Structure formats: structure tokens, C-alpha cells
Amino acid sequence: MGARKIAIACQGGGSHAAFTCGVLTEILRTKRSWDASEASAQKFDIVAISGTSAGALCGLATWYGLIPNSADPQCGTIDKAIERLDYLWTSFAATTPIEHVHNTSVRELLQLREKGVPLPISNPYDGSGPLILAGLAMLGARQEYLGFPGLLEALCPHFSSIDWPKAAQAKFRFIVGAIEVLSGNVEAFDSEKTLRELGLPSIAKDVDQYSATRWRMLRSLTLAGVAASGTLPEVLPAQKIENLAFPTCAPGKVVKRNGYYWDGLYSQNPPIRDLLSVRQKEDKPDEIWVIRINPQEYYAENPNAHVDDIHDRVNALAGNLSLNQELDHILTINRWIREFGDAHPPLSNCKLVDVRSIKMTRETARRLRSTTKFDRSPIHIAKLREEGQSVARKWLHDWRALGSDFASYPDDARYA
Fold it and tell me: Which of 67, 201, 238, 409 can bridge 260 by disulfide, Cβ–Cβ 3.0-4.6 Å?
């Protein structure tokens, strides 16, 4: 029985994505255990991972740990990927005394606003942000806590030493979603684009994205691109990436300028269609596992009970809109293949792809709010990580035991 090729897609959601950390950790541990077993039961190989915002951070930690690195011989192993996931969320959580004070203050302010207390709206461009960060640093806040640059550099200290030739051989893809503010482009920072630019073998389709005005762009994978994916416009200035090429209305003509990026919540949460954009059918995943952070369904009888209830629901709807559209497209292709077969174009390079959801328990989903996505307390993060591991442990058992009878999208996106 051949191993199933699995792509994992990680939704964004601030500190709620600690659940994703727990899920990925359990998936990796289970793979290690199953690979070591001689049992003939179904196994799986992870061929790609995509993510947006905090989901992209989880994806980066996993990918960085699993990809060989010339400066760190421990990279390229499941153990390293698990260690990087743990490091990410341990570093992201409030640790020092001033970090605890800051996190508690933010949480209480958000709770006051949730109760209707009028509070001033912060402006990420008013110049006070850098002064506040400098003050927090002087009082003992770590750079990993204060922003993406410090966190990403600590998470991937040898990013520049990734062994790209071996990465090409591994055929393990990582894709990050973001939105370019000025053009409105849906953009993805893609490890396969990096391979192509380095002249190395790539499984991705070769698309001339500058021959006409297009609203979807692929960029090479960088830490700045991962930071761009998590740049909430209400909190941070747009992430600037210098000297990028953008298509114009004239075929083949490009303009060079700085790119400005916001959170991928507004474009792909997370990227899905690029996971299937490969040249050869055998390189496409057999299944896509979506780790959902934003609940599909609403639980209150009246969605207009309070302005913050409305905000919570709008946040969840925005996070699921692009995801469901891309997943529904996969179901359409699946239906065409079953109806017409895949012997002839345009379906000859397509395959049936199962889509499955991994989500929080109903009780946790009902308890969390958009404001708790900013809570970086160790207890909050630890509970979500533990739930992710528990959910994934049972989910993987059922996936193996039930086979093709195991629940799939769209039915498994909702709660029974």
C-alpha cells in the first residue's frame, strides 16, 4: 500500500494558531511512528505545506526543520521540525515580566472595547509605534516578542544556508499567502519559485506572469514574505519589500517598485490552488488537510447582538471566504473527473484530490473571539497547543481506520 501524498494548509488566526502548532506536532510525531512500523496499514508523506499569517509561521517552522541546511545538520529531520514549532510558540508567548504586563494590558484594553468603552484607535503610521517598542525593549522585552524580524531570524537562524539543491530533490513545497496593497494582487511567496530562480529543478508550472496584467503573482520565498503574510493593517505598517517587478497593461512590460503587503487574510487564507499547480500529475497531492482556525458556522441566535459579535463574525467570514472558494473549485474538478474521466484534455493532467478539515472542538470555537487572537499568555497558548495535539491524535487514528469512509469537505467543515 503506497503512502498517500499529503499537502497541509494552515489558516491564520493570531495566537489561535497555537492550535495549528499542536496539530502539526502530532502529525509529525505520528508520521515518525508510522514510518518506523512495519505494519501494512496506510501511511502518508507530506509533500507541501501552505499558510497565512500565524499559519505561515507554523508552516515555516515545519518546512525549515524538514529541509536540509548546510549550516545545521539537524535540519532535514522530523525532530528538528518539532523543535522549531515548539521554539516558535515558546518565543511568541509573553515570557519576561514586562511582556506579561504588556500582554495583560492589551488584553484588558480589548476587553473594555468589547464592552463598548470608547477608546482611541491606534494608527500604525503615527510614529509612536517605534518609540513604544524601544521602551518595551529597554524594560526587558525580547526582540522575538516585539516583532516579526526578531522572531523570524531567531526561528530560522540559518535561512541563508538552506541547501536548495537538496530541497529540490525533496520536492517539499512551502507557500505563503499575502496581499499587495497598491496593486491588489493576490501574491504567494513560494519555495518552488526560489528553485526556479536558482536554475534548479522545480515541480511547479512555469507561468509567464508578466505577459499580461494579472492579479496573482508568485514571488521567491523570503523571511520578509512570511512577515508580510502576518502584517495586520490595524496594528502594523505595510511590510515593504524593495525592488519588485509588477506587470503593466503592455504585454511583457514590467515596472519595478517597492511592494507593500498586508495580511494574507485578505487574499488566501491559506493558499490552496498553488498546491495543485504542478507540471506532472504524479507530483500533485492525493489529499489536502486544512487546519481551520476560523469556524465556518455561527453559534449565537442573533448575529447582531453586539458590535463586537458582528466584528467576530466578519473576521471569521473573511478568513473563510477565499478558502471555501478554492476548495469548492477542487470539488468541481473532482466531479468532472468522475463524470467525464481524465483521459483527455483539459482533465488529463488532473487527479482526484480528497479535502479534509482539522478543526477545534465546538466548545473551544465558541469560547474564542477575535480579541483572544491577540492574547499571548503562556496558559492560553499551551491550552490551544494541547487541544491541537489531542484533536489531531484522534483525527489521524480515524483517518487510518476509516479510509475512504472518513469524513471530508464540505461536511467536515461544520460541527455535527
Answer: 238
Nearest to 268 by CA among 384, 365, 185, 159: 185
Look up the pTM and report it. 0.95
Dihedral, CA atoms, 341, 347, 351, 353, nearest 10 degrees? -100
From first to last of its 416 residues, what are the pLDDT tens digits of the chain?
Answer: 689 999 999 999 999 999 999 999 999 999 999 999 988 889 999 999 999 999 999 999 999 999 999 999 999 999 999 999 999 999 999 999 999 999 999 888 888 877 777 777 777 787 778 888 899 999 999 999 999 999 999 999 999 999 999 999 999 999 999 999 999 999 999 999 999 999 999 999 888 888 866 788 999 999 999 999 998 888 888 999 999 999 888 877 899 999 999 988 878 899 999 999 999 999 999 999 999 998 888 766 665 566 767 777 887 888 888 899 999 999 999 999 999 999 999 999 999 999 999 999 999 998 898 889 999 999 999 999 999 999 999 999 999 999 999 999 999 999 88
Q: 409 and 355 in contact (C-beta within 8 Å)?
A: yes
Phi-psi region of 231 (alpha: psi -120 to 50; beta: other; left: phi over 0): beta
Q: Helix 97-114 vs helix 128-138: angle between axes, to the nearest 10 degrees?
A: 140
Which residues does 7 contact at the CB level (< 8 Å), separation at least 6? 46, 47, 48, 49, 50, 173, 275, 285, 287, 288, 289
Burial level of 210, CB count in 10 A (0-12/13-18/19+)?
middle
Cell of 128: 509612536
CA-to-CA separations, 347 to 66, 80, 291, 332, 392, in angstroms, rounded:
33, 39, 28, 12, 33
On whether the CB atoms of residues 415 and 299 are closer than 8 A, the answer is no
Pairing of strands 173-180, 186-190: antiparallel
Can you give the length of the chain in residues?
416
Cα gap 353→342, rounded to integer Å: 13
Respond yes or no on whether the N-terminal peptide bond of residue 378 is cis (omega within 30° of 0). Answer: no
Backbone phi, psi, residue 54, to 5°? -65, -25
